[in-house]
Predict the structure of protein-histidine N-methyltransferase.
Amino acid sequence: MLSDEDKSKSLVLKSGEELFFAPSSAVEARLKKSGYENDLAIQSTNHSDLTAGVYEGGFKVWEGAIDLCNYLDSSVQAEEIAEKSVLELGCGAGLPGIYAAKKNAKFVSFQDFNQSVLDCFTRTNVQLNSVNLDRCRFVAGDWVDCLQSFEGQKYDIVLTAETIYSEASFTKLHDIIDRTLADDGIVLIAAKLYYFGVGGSVPAFMDFVKRQGRLNVQDVWTSDTAVPRKILKLTRIR
């Protein structure tokens, strides 16, 4: 049940469609009510966008997630989402997955490193957008640990944003995509061209994917900003 504290902010897509998400004040109140005030992830949010292995930036609405929502809204037909199974990896606010749910995806799984993010931000945002929780699943943990949770489950659409910021994560991300993607499924990855100071980049990730020889990868969208942002599309090699 949502309270008055959960009064939302909104992301207005280029088409005019709105997606709602809880403001930081509401998230903080919900964290305290849920007993997460001493969680290491919560402490990390006061000092950094992310702390590797502790907090992966889930309480922030990242630019890549906004790009991904706008791309889905402008370049993917609603019928390509309807009745499809969708997985959002590193979901944080969960806005791309929520967009898919609003376009009648069959069901959506939201995965984030931190349980506190899922409980106090993602789930709240799902409710703020009037998405039926019965059509959603929430899975917390590192991608390696989550593989067992997704065992036997294949997804038609896999979405993820701002998750290639470190080359150290490439193998884990590639593996969970490879294990969960349906034979004719698609993956959309939103990212900055380069992540200065942390080592990841779109060119490095594309090279990595090509070396694995399991997935096709192509650049399908580029921003017109000083530091370019990209969206990549991955499909299985036939």
Notes: The two ends are 46 Å apart (CA to CA).
